[in-house]
Specification:
- There is one protein chain.
- By secondary structure, the protein is an alpha/beta fold.
- The chain has helices at about 10-25, 45-50, 60-65, 95-115, 130-135, 175-195, 220-230, 255-265, 310-320, 330-335, 350-355, 365-375, 380-385, and strands spanning about 1-5, 30-35, 55, 75, 115-125, 135-140, 145, 160, 160-165, 200-205, 205, 245-250, 295-300, 305-310, 345.
């Protein structure tokens, strides 16, 4: 089987590529990356040394796509992953859409020509910001916890395990979220129109050693590296106490499900999910493949692998030691907030367990320890990637 991985030199792409070869050494993997993310260049030679054909190119360039050999599957890991992209003054809205949506269109055309399957690594940020920003929460152990007694969404959209696949995706979801949602819709349309398989894997926050973390993306890695380097850190918004919560998923936990999806080792029914063969006609549930398996599924660390920034700071204090200048005294940070920010985001992966028998295998503590060890071995990492 021949696999094209876009964004292969990024954190997710490189971990997935190595993981696929580890589980199935006979795979032929080649990848494309424009190395626009600082730090991604560090993965080029090690990937090539493992037998992967790494090509420097851009998914926005049709000539670069046309020069690629045929593949059986495309795993699309290429994106500008920042929720602030297009509004942060570093990239324009058009640049973001050219990268995240225009590039996807070129890849879908590639799949049409070669009859290749397509897997999109999507995001939790396709879910509507307004109801999430207004989510009633209470504080427990220095972390926000949803107050379900005051929350009026149905169990089909939101559960004690988090946000489900049928949660609203209406704007606003940020320009970044919109670019990924549009990519999802186009991928499904292309797959149905031109008869090639498509899977949309919506992921929570990815984290692990070697991630190119920044304050607006890759927060677990950024926080631990910054703590180790004793760089200034501060809580922004939500009262300035760091109670906001995210879940955490190591990308290596995606490898097993990607192999199942590509090998056609699909379950015959979505057991217990109550999704029928005609579910694609219903706007409240994700579209389904011909074998009744949903094509859009959440894959995340879940409640067990979630924590607040305050809890992460407590972990850093115990593992690394105190941070002498934290928290920074910044009155504006108490009331101000970043655009599109939300207090709590944890994806419910129940559907993934019901349909694929999938659940994360790397516990949160192991992910954090892996990052801490990487920070100790690479004290200048933040200078390299930010």
């Amino acid at each position: 089987m021949k696999i094209l991985i876009t964004g292969i030199c990024g954190f997710a792409g490189s971990v997935i590529a190595r993981g696929l070869l580890e589980l199935q050494p006979g795979l032929q993997i080649f990848g494309l990356d424009n190395l626009c993310r600082r730090g991604s260049e560090t993965n080029v030679e090690s990937l090539r040394a493992s037998g992967i054909d790494v090509r420097i190119g851009d998914i926005r360039n049709e000539d670069d796509i046309a020069a690629l050999p045929s593949a059986d599957w495309v795993i699309d890991c290429a994106a500008n992953p920042s929720v602030l992209a297009g509004v942060d003054g570093k990239t324009s809205a058009k640049e973001l859409l050219d990268h995240n949506l225009g590039g996807t269109i070129h890849l879908l055309e590639y799949c049409r020509r070669h009859q290749a399957g397509f897997i999109l690594l999507s995001t939790s940020r396709v879910y509507s910001i307004k109801p999430l920003a207004e989510l009633p929460v209470e504080v427990q152990d220095n972390a926000f916890v949803p107050d379900l007694s005051a929350f009026d969404f149905s169990p089909s959209t939101f559960s004690t395990h988090g946000v489900r696949e049928s949660f609203p995706t209406d704007p606003p979801i940020s320009l970044y979220g919109s670019s990924k949602k549009c990519s999802e819709l186009l991928a499904l349309e292309y797959g149905m129109t031109f008869d090639f398989p498509v899977w949309i894997n919506r992921c929570g926050v990815l984290a692990g050693a070697g991630q190119f973390g920044k304050a607006d993306q890759g927060i677990f890695s950024y926080w631990i590296h910054s703590w180790k380097a004793q760089r200034p850190l501060k809580y922004i918004g939500f009262g300035g106490k760091g109670h906001q919560v995210r879940d955490c998923l190591h990308p290596s936990d995606l490898v097993s499900i990607l192999l199942k999806q590509m090998e056609g080792n699909w379950p015959q029914k979505a057991h217990g999910s109550q999704i029928g063969a005609d579910s694609s006609l219903c706007s409240l549930v994700p579209p389904v493949a011909k074998n009744s398996v949903p094509q859009i599924i959440n894959f995340s660390g879940g409640i067990e692998n979630s924590m607040s920034l305050a809890q992460l700071s407590r972990w850093c204090t115990g593992r690394i030691g105190p941070h002498p200048s934290f928290p920074v005294s910044d009155v504006s940070a108490l009331t101000s907030s970043r655009p599109f920010d939300i207090p709590w985001m944890v994806l419910d992966s129940t559907l993934a367990k019901e349909t694929w028998n999938w659940q994360p295998t790397t516990p949160l503590g192991e992910v954090l320890e892996e990052i801490a060890q990487h920070a100790e071995a690479n004290p200048d990492w933040l200078d390299l990637v930010t």
